[in-house]
Amino acid sequence: MTIDRRKILLFGSAAALRFSLFSAFPLLPDLLIGRAEISTPVTSFKRLQEGLFLYTHNVSPYDGGVFYQANTSAPLFLPLFALIPSQLFSLVTALLYILADLLCAQSVIQIAESGVTRSSRLFTSPRKDIKWDSVAVGAAYLFNPFTIATCLARPTSVFSNCAILYAIASAVNRRPVKSMLALAFAAYLSLYPALLLPPLILLCYDESTVAEHPKTSITASASKLSSFFIGSLSWFMIMSYLLTGQSWEFLQSTYGVHLLLPDLTPNVGLWWYFFIEMFDSFRQFFLGVFWLHLLGYVGGLCIRLRKQPLFVLTTLVGLFAIFQPYPSISDASLYLAFLPLYSHIFPLMRYAFFAVATILYTTLLGPAFYYLWIYAGSGNANFFYAITLVWSLGLSIVVGECLFAVLRDEWELERPEMKGKDVRRI
To answer: Tell me: the pLDDT tens digits for 217-229?
Structure first.
């Protein structure tokens, strides 16, 4: 068994950086926990602590009215955290989140090493020789400031991201059962990853049928994988039912919060301000419209980009970072982790500088506008919501640019004579 020294150096330096920030700046994690850009009502570490306090005092964690997280009612979280001595709680949780980040990076490296982003069963890019080294791809994730800030703030979205990346890594490595189990766990944690099921099934099918003789039909494979996904998700639900005193109240307090948006705490998303201003008589209608809008991307992308299901997953992750009810920079960091995998399409992007400048602009001004509104009192909600609109614009440009570049890449494969020529609408 060969040992990759570069990978050891990468993981060691990333872990050391995170641990040194936890140790040298003990007040920094507490500061980041309260940031609206990182912590949301459904992922906040502070709300996790509230649920843990209720759980350890034999009270349902959902009785407090502030705890909306499904993942901590699972046998992997609240009972585990309840066993940690209070004096070691900060240290243990810091090590746990550092480990989760390293597992995410390992999954990203495995996806990069598979080469699926450049060459798959149905498509091989004419620019397949342009690529980043897998360790460089992992470094781009581990040393992304958004990833580091998320690790320090310890939102529970880290575990959702880890499950999503592991599901995709398992799919490209032809382990469809593990892939479905990981996606079911991610959907159990955050609900919206369930929308990744169709493209993930296509990815599992494409990678599995490369080695299968004879090949199974896509219908049979989809039925089998969907059944396993539903069964795994049902098992997680039943475990929550048993751990909450054989009560289904957690459904309303977790997934109901995603679907019905009762908590309008400000975040970097588009929903909270819109529904603050919404008349109650129109609320249910627009909730349906917003969710249908998010759902509508799945089918269209799966059909148009059938040859590249991994890019469909990447695009959906980016869209979720913009349009889901409670987004944070943790979701953006997950999307940005996939972009180095598609370095071969970077030359085809037209507005990369504008997109990067927009994201940097909002990253710097977002906290300032939030301070002016909440603390200084010299602004109002429009200050912060305006900068979140610009943030969403920046991410939308990145998603749109990647879509254009991938479609252009496919088009040049079909028509090699058009390579390098401008495309103009007539």
So the answer is: 888 889 999 999 9
How confident is residue 315, by pLDDT bands cut at 50, 70 and 90? very high
Residue 69: alpha-carbon gap to chain centroid: 16
Residues 269/388, Cβ–Cβ less than 8 Å:
yes
Q: Any long-range contacts for 409-414 (C-beta under 8 Å, 24+ apart)?
A: 409/125, 409/126, 409/127, 409/344, 409/345, 409/348, 410/123, 410/307, 410/308, 412/126, 413/123, 413/124, 413/125, 413/126
3-state secondary structure of 124: strand
Any idea what DSSP says for residue 42? T
d(CA 104, CA 109): 9
Q: What is the dihedral of CA 246, 324, 140, 169, to 10 degrees?
A: 50
Q: Residue 166 corresponds to which tokens in the numbers above? A: 């592991």
Q: What phi, psi does 221 have (nearest 5°)? A: -65, -40
Over residues 329-334, the mean pLDDT reads 94
Distances, alpha carbon 24 to alpha carbons 10, 359, 380, 412, in Å: 21, 28, 35, 52
φ, ψ dihedrals at 119, nearest 5°: -145, 120
- Other C-beta atoms closer than 10 Å to the C-beta of 378 total 9
Q: What is the pLDDT of residue 71?
A: 44
Helix, coil or strand: residue 104: helix
Surface-to-core class of residue 293, CB atoms within 10 Å of its CB (0-12 exposed, 13-18 middle, 19+ buried): exposed
User: What is the pTM (predicted TM-score) of this model?
Assistant: 0.93
- Residue 38 near residue 32, CB atoms below 8 Å: yes
Query: Is the model more confident about 211 or about 370?
Result: 370
Question: What would the mean pLDDT of 183-210 be, rounded to a whole number?
Answer: 91
Phi and psi angles of residue 210, each rounded to the nearest 5 degrees, phi first: -60, -35
The residue written with tokens 């695009």 in the block is 315
Determine the residue type at 420: G
